[in-house]
Protein 1
Amino acid sequence: MTMFRMGEAADLLGVSPDTVRRWVDAGRLAATRDDQGHRVVDGVDLAAFVRAQAGDPDDRADESSARNRLRGIVTAVVKDGVMAQVDIQAGPFRVVSLMSREAVDDLGLAVGSVAIAVIKSTTVVVERPTSHPDTRRNGS
C-alpha cells in the first residue's frame, strides 16, 4: 500500500498542500495518521478522488477512439517550410507535438489559443520512478 503525505499528494494533484488539507478537513478526501503523526492519504483513495474530480470528456471524444485528452494553452508554435512544432501547457504538463505546417494553419493554432492534445494509448510509455522520494510504501 502506497501512502502519501499532504505535500506529496498536493504535488501529484498540482495543487497546494493547504488545498489538500482543506479537502481532508472537509471530508472530501480520506486521510489517516502515520507512525510519526503526519496525515497521509492512501494511494488507492487518492486515485479514486482524482478519478471523481475528472471532468466529462467533451462531445468530440465520441468521434475518436483516443480517450486521453489534455486541454491546455498553446505556448509556442515553430514552423518551417513543411513541419511545425506546437507546445501545449496542460496544467503542469508540457505536451509537444510535431505536425504539418498545413495542419497548424488549418487548426488556427497560435500562441495563446486553447488546444486539446489527443494521445492514443498505444503510443504512451508508462514508467515508475526508481528512487523518487514522493513514492512511499507502508507510510515509510
Note: The helical segments are 6-13, 17-25, 43-53, 101-107.
Protein 2
Amino acid sequence: MVIGERIRRRRTELHMSLREVAEKAGVTASFLSQIERELADPSIKSLRRIAEALEVPVFYFLSDEQEHRPVVRRHERKKLTLPRSQVTYELLTPDLNRKMEMFIGRIHPSQGNIAHPMSHSTEECLLVLEGRLRVELADSAYELEPGDSIYFDGSQLQSICALGDEEAVFISAITPAVF
C-alpha cells in the first residue's frame, strides 16, 4: 500500500473529511486530495503535520505491511534521513502502531541543532552510545558523554547537537511515538 492510500484509509477510519484533515494539517484540501490519489508527494514536514492530524506517527505511512514480529534484526531496521539536517534515524521498534518508539540517532557536529519542536506533549529519554551530545532544555543545558542518559518533557527541548569533531550516536525512547 502506498502513502496516499494509507492517508485515505486512516482518514476514513476516523470519519474525517478532506477539508477537516487539511485544516488540521495546515495544507489545502486539493493538495491532500492529490496526495491521496498519488498525484503529489508530500514533504516530510507536510507528512508529519498530516500524521499529527490523523493521530498516527509518520512511519505509519512509510512502513511495509509485514507480519508484526517482536524482534527487529539489525539489517531490517527502517531508516529515515531528514533532508535538511541529514540526521539518520534507525527505528528499533518492530512496527509503528505503538505508544512508544525507540530509535538510534546519528549526528555529526556540523549538523548543528537537530531538535524538532513537537506540537503535542512527549516524554523522551536519550542514552549516549558514542561521541558527546549537548542537550538544552528550557531551564538548563547538559553535556552528555557515552553512558550518560537524560529524561525530559519534549516541550522543554530547545536543542540537541553533537560536540567535538566526531559523530554522536544515541538511543532515544519517545512516547507517544512521533515518526
Note: The chain has two domains: 3-62, 74-175.
Protein 3
Amino acid sequence: MRLDPNLSKRLSVIIPVYNSEQTIGILIDQLIAELAGEFTGLELLLINDGSSDNSHNVILEAQKRHHRIVRYITLSRNFGEHNAVMCALNFAKGDNAVILDDDFQNPPSEIKLLLDTLQKGYDVVYSYYSSKKHDPFRNFGSLINDLFATWLLKKPRGLYLSSFKAMNRFMINTAAQYTGPFPYLDGIILRSTTKIGRCLCQHNKRALGKSNYTLTRLLRLWLNMFTGFSIVPLRITSFIGAFMSLFSFLLAVYFIVVHFTGPLLIKQAVPPGWASTIVCLTFFSGLQLSVLGIIGEYLGRLFLTANKSPQYIIRETYGID
C-alpha cells in the first residue's frame, strides 16, 4: 500500500520501551524496512522508561546501524508509559507522529492506515480492533478504563482509546505544552480537540516476551485520569456529604418525634444497643476517610505539581540534536 504523497513528509514514530529486549530490535528493523522509503524524513524516537533487562544495549546497537533514523533517550528511572510518551513529544520533529507499543502486537504496516485516515482532517486517529489479542486481564482493564473515560472525560461512545494512534503537528505541540508530573495523554487529547477519528487495524497476539500491563500500572492510570483531568470525584463526595447531612437531619427529627409520641416504625422502645452504634460509627468513619482520601489525593498532586515534581528526567540521549 502506497501512502498519499501529501503524507510522505516527516514522520516521528514514538515507542516507549520497557523491558522489551526480545522484540524491540526486530521492531526497529521492520519499521525501517516498511517506512524508510515512504518518508523524506523518518525518525524512530525510542524512550527507555527505566528498563531492567537488556533493552538498552539492543537499542544502542540498532541506533549505531541506523544512526540517521533512530533517536534514543533513556530516562533516569521508570516514570510510566504516558510520561515517556510526553518526553518523546517534546523531541518529535515530524509533521505527524505515530505512537506504537514495543510489544509487536500492531504490525508496522498498519501505520499507513492510521496516517491515511489522519489526512481526512483529524487531529488524532485512534486504532480499534475487530478482535483484540490481549490477555483477559488487560481486556478487562481496558473495558473499565473505557467506562471511566466516557463518564469522567466525556469520551465519545464507540471511541476506543488505543495506545496505537496517530496525531498531527497541532496535537503534538498542544500535548507537549502539558508539563504536569501526572500526564494522561488521552485526557489531554479529549480536552484539546473534537477532531478525533478511528481506524480499523489488525491486532496480533504477543509472540515474544510477557506483558508489562500490571494492576499497579492500571491503578496509576486511573488515578491520573481521576485527579488530573476531572473534578467529578470531588463533586460526588460533595453530593454524598450533602445526602448524609440530610439523612442525619431527618433521623434527628424522627428521634425527636419518637421522644414525644413513642415508637413509630419500631413498635418497641429503641434499646441503646452497641451493635447499631458500632455499625453507624464504622460506616460514617469509613465514609469520612474515603472522602478525605480523595481530597488528599488532589491536594497531594497539587503539592507535587507546585514543587515542580518532574514529568520525566533524561539520563542520556543518542542521536538527539
Note: The domain at 9-229+309-318 is CATH 3.90.550.10 (Spore Coat Polysaccharide Biosynthesis Protein SpsA; Chain A).
Protein 4
Amino acid sequence: MRKLARLLLPALLPALLTASACSSLPLPGGEGMGGYAVKIEFADVLDLVENSAVKVNDVTVGTVEDIAVDGWTAEVTVRVNDDVQLPANSTAALRQTSLLGEKFVAISPPIDVAPEGALTDGATIPIDRTRRSAEVEEVLGALALTLGGGGLEQLRTINTELINALEGRETDIRDTLGELDAFVTSLDAQREQIVTAIDALDALALDLAKQTDDIGAALDALGPGAEVLAEQQGNLSAALEALKKLGDVGTHVVEASRDDTLASIESLQPILEQLVAAGDDFPQGLELALSYPFPHNVSGAIQGDFVNLHITLDLDLGDVLGNLFGGKAPDAGPEDDEGPPADEEPGPGEANPLTGGLAELLLGGLAG
C-alpha cells in the first residue's frame, strides 16, 4: 500500500497543481484582466450572486465583484473590461437569461437623454437610474389575481354595457367623432393663442396674489355698502316704480305727439333745403349781422380811445355834386337804357323840387 502511494503521489501532484492554477484563469466571454470598478445601487437585487455576468447589448463585459447592503439600498460592485467605454449617465437593470435562468446586470446608455461623459473607476450609477425586471412569481401572481375574479368580470360588464350604448347609434357616433376631430383640430390650430391666454391668466393671478391685501380690504368694504343698500331698499323700490311711471308717461306723450312731430319735421324740410342751398352765404351773413353796421374786423381797428382807419377820399367835384344832389356830370353816360316814365320827367325850365335849378346850373358850368 505504501509502495502504491509512493508511485501515485509524483503523478497526481502535477495534476493537482494544474487544476488549482486553472481557477485563476478568465472564462471565455467573461471579463478580462484588470478593468474598472463601478458601484450600482438597486432597490432590490432578488437572488443575484457574486460572479454573475455584467452585459452590454447581451455581450458579457464584466462580472459582479461584491454585493453589500446600505440601509434599504443594495450596492452592487461590478468590474467592467477596460476596452468597454460607457457614458457617465448610463442606466443599469437586473435581468435574467431566460424564464428560469440566472440573473445578470445589464448596463446600457441612456435613451431619453443624450449620453454625457464616461464611466470611470469608482463611478456610481444611482438608484434612480436602475430597475429590475418582473419575477416569474410576480407575473404568475398577477395572472392568478386577474383570472381569479380580479378584473375579468368587470371588463365583461364594461364591454356589454358599451355594446348596448353604441348599438343602433353608429351614425350619431360617427358624426360625434367627426365633430370631435374638427374640435381637436381647431384647438391644435389655436394652441399658440391658448398658451398665450394661459400665460396671461397666470400673470393676472400673480398680480392678484400681490394685491391680496387690497382685494381683502375691498371685500371688507362691501359689507357696509351692502348694509346701506339694504336700508335704502324701500327708497330704491320707490325710485324704480317712479321711473316705470315716467317711462309710461313718456311713451304716451311720444305716441300722442307723433303726428305733430312728423308734420313739424316735414315743415322744416324746405327751410333746411334753403339753408343747404345758401351754402357759405348764410354763415357769412350771420357773421356780418353780429357786427352791423361795421365789418366783423372792426374790433381790430379800435385801440383804446382811438380808431385806426384807412379811407379812400374821392374829391372829384362832379361825383360829389352828383352824389349830393342826385344829378350827374354831363360827360357821364346814361345809367340805364330805360329812363324814368315820361309823365314823371320834369319839363324844360322846371326846377327839381329838392334842389331847384342849382344842380343843373353847377353841372352846366362845369361842363361849359
Note: The chain has a mean pLDDT of 79.
